[in-house]
């Protein structure tokens, strides 16, 4: 995916045009990156000479990662983070045999990007035993085991973020003990799974949504069971209506989401530019004057 920005600068006999912000999916092949302008695409060029220059110097015609066609088109194979940067193509040609040579310097900024990973974060509250009771700790472990078992077949995992017991003054009532649970549901990496999933089953979004539905159903069933109960309520039980869920995006370290800087890839995790970094699985590239490379993970 790329966007053409029609900026022209005349430097003596060289016409500089900027073709900026090309986005290449990480570990995929790039689109065709042309060494001609829109106006020249359908024009006849006499004795054209193409020369590409990248962050590491001049590009050769072909190697394991780069291919340059006879017409000057640049192609990347299995684009990596470190390939990101400014690329320029020098084009020299004659419009006609009688005319003098013309020179163009065409510039691209090529970014690696990936789709964001995401996870669900849930919060739920339980009526609890006294806050220093071992029964609360035992219940917490049992609850995590149940939730993990619910989603394991979907190649998802449950992780406890926080578990806190508090004394809560109820409206028009006395005090009670409550456990505030915060846990996440995320997709397991394919390598961590016990078996290789089929194409449809490997869809992360679909698997996570199924996991979310199973967890919401589990908490709804707790309410139904308590509603049918004739005996006194147990000491520890789910408090109806307290389950909350949010969708959280995350990028791998060195990448971030910035729709203002990258309007053509607004929801992409784009490699952090020089002058910025992302040290963790967040969604923002943070400013750092010491960072001189693309995809920095530390300042």
UniProtKB/TrEMBL annotation:
Belongs to the zona pellucida-binding protein Sp38 family. Keywords: Cytoplasmic vesicle, Glycoprotein, Secreted. Signal peptide: none annotated. It is found in: Cytoplasmic vesicle, Secretory vesicle, Acrosome; Secreted. Residues 251-299 form the Zona-pellucida-binding protein 1/2 C-terminal domain. It holds the Pfam family EGF_Sp38_C. One of its GO terms (biological process) is acrosome assembly. The gene is ZPBP. This is Zona pellucida binding protein. The keyword Transmembrane helix does not apply. The keyword Glycoprotein applies. It comes from Podarcis muralis. InterPro entries: Ig-like_fold, Sp38-bd, ZPBP1/2_C, ZPBP1/2_N. GO terms for cellular component: acrosomal vesicle; extracellular region; zona pellucida receptor complex. Coiled coil: none annotated. PANTHER family: ZONA PELLUCIDA BINDING PROTEIN SP38, ZONA PELLUCIDA-BINDING PROTEIN 1.
């Amino acid at each position: 995916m790329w966007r053409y920005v029609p900026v022209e600068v005349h430097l003596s006999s060289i016409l500089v045009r900027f073709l900026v912000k090309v986005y290449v999916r990480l570990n995929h092949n790039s689109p065709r990156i042309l060494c001609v302008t829109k106006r020249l695409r359908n024009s006849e060029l006499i004795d054209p000479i193409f020369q590409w220059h990248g962050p590491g110097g001049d590009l050769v015609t072909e190697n394991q990662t780069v291919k340059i066609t006879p017409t000057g088109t640049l192609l990347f194979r299995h684009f990596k983070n470190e390939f990101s940067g400014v690329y320029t193509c020098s084009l020299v040609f004659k419009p006609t045999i009688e005319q003098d040579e013309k020179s163009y310097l065409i510039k691209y900024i090529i970014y690696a990007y990936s789709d964001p990973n995401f996870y669900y974060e849930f919060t739920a509250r339980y009526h609890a035993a006294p806050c220093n009771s071992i029964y609360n700790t035992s219940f917490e472990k049992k609850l995590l085991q149940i939730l993990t078992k619910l989603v394991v077949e979907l190649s998802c995992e449950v992780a406890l973020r926080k578990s806190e017991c508090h004394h809560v003054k109820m409206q028009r009532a006395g005090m009670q003990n409550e456990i505030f649970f915060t846990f996440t549901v995320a997709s397991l990496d394919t390598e961590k799974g016990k078996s290789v999933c089929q194409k449809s089953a490997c869809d992360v979004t679909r698997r996570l949504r199924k996991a979310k539905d199973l967890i919401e159903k589990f908490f709804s069933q707790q309410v139904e069971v308590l509603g049918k109960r004739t005996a006194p309520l147990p000491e520890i039980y789910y408090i109806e209506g307290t389950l909350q869920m949010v969708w959280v995006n995350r990028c791998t370290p060195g990448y971030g989401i910035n729709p203002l800087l990258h309007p053509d890839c607004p929801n992409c995790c784009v490699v952090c530019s020089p002058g910025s970094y992302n040290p963790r699985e967040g969604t923002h590239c943070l400013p750092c004057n010491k960072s001189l490379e693309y995809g920095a993970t530390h300042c």
